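Handoff note, outgoing to incoming analyst
You'll be picking up this chain. Sequence as last confirmed:
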Amino acid sequence: MVELTVSPAHQRLRDRVMRFTRFDLLPTDAVQEAFARGHSAGDPIAERFVAQTYHGDLGPERSRELLDEALRVGIANVPDAPESMRELFAEFETIPEWVDPTLVEQGAAVWRRWAYSLGAVGNAGTMDTYTEASLAVPLSLSGGYAGASALHRYLETSRWWLEVCRPNAALTPASTARGVSLKVRVMHVSVRARVAEHPEWKSTQHGLPISQSEMMLTLLGGSVGPAIGLYALGFLTSPQEMRAVLHFNRYLGHLVGCQVDEIYPRTVADGVRLLYYFDATRKHDSGPLGPELVEGFVPSFEPASDVRGWSRLRAHYHLQLQAGYTRLFMLPWNRRRYRLPSGLPGLAVLIGRAPLVAVVEVARRLSPSIDRRWQDGQMRRWRRWHAWHLGQREERFDAGKQLRR
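Most recent structure output, in case you need it:
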């Protein structure tokens, strides 16, 4: 089992908070042990499928064709589908008993209000974790968030966010949201298998790449993290909405292969405890890979030399916005490790518009019509930004891609 040790500074802070508020910043011993075990847990059903197909005799291209066909016409109508693929679809298409469709839709509505800010906060929070080799090594080896490909990989992730939060999409059979989710799951499994065999991966220290515990952290980064952090930018998420977005992310975890039953938090307080526990047990062992990933991402928004006029200004605006989010949502002592654009212009924009966002957030509580228009407007702007940046490129969620070194 991966060894996780709470730092003395975090232990002292936990003791002070406990003494004055009776709130324990750390999860129970049982949750801590399960979280440590989760670093060595993968996704066995999807792993069998990938080993037999993408990494087996079928090869990536034929496997991708079979997967696309099964998503389009249903697994029962694909006679060539191997048994491992049928097993994967049987699990994927089964809706767990704990799923509450009302809460799932309420959580999706929260994402629709956060929209572009969800992605930007998630980005900043993710970059803050690149102090850890267990997270940085898979990303560096796969090349997804390294160098020139960083922006395109982010656009792939944004596509998934955009699809799963469409009204009722996550629970609708054969929806694009569900299809993209399964492709993300298969891609993660493929990367996990290749990185686990690479000499740069230290299994005794880190367990499995893209482990169950690390996948769960990303779910908290789409729920508890932004729900609390976006208050600073005027997004007034109620406690009930926070619980709904936690439930929504729990179901998204099921879709992408995260085993969400044992220690996934049911309350915001439990989510805070797990995030604190991750921060308290950091190893700060990513070495040069952390700067490679962090310093490659925000500059990837820089416009190409042949971009002129309004498009160039628009690209610079989003670069500064992304840098502004890192100022707000990366821990300052971690951000200081990296060479990043100042982000001050973007920070000024974010803080300057926060009161206007708060006014709309109050108004949408008073009027369902304003709420719907607010969601629609936020999503329209997010899709427009995504389409503009994506251009003629294609999101492939490529499970057949080789490691870059």
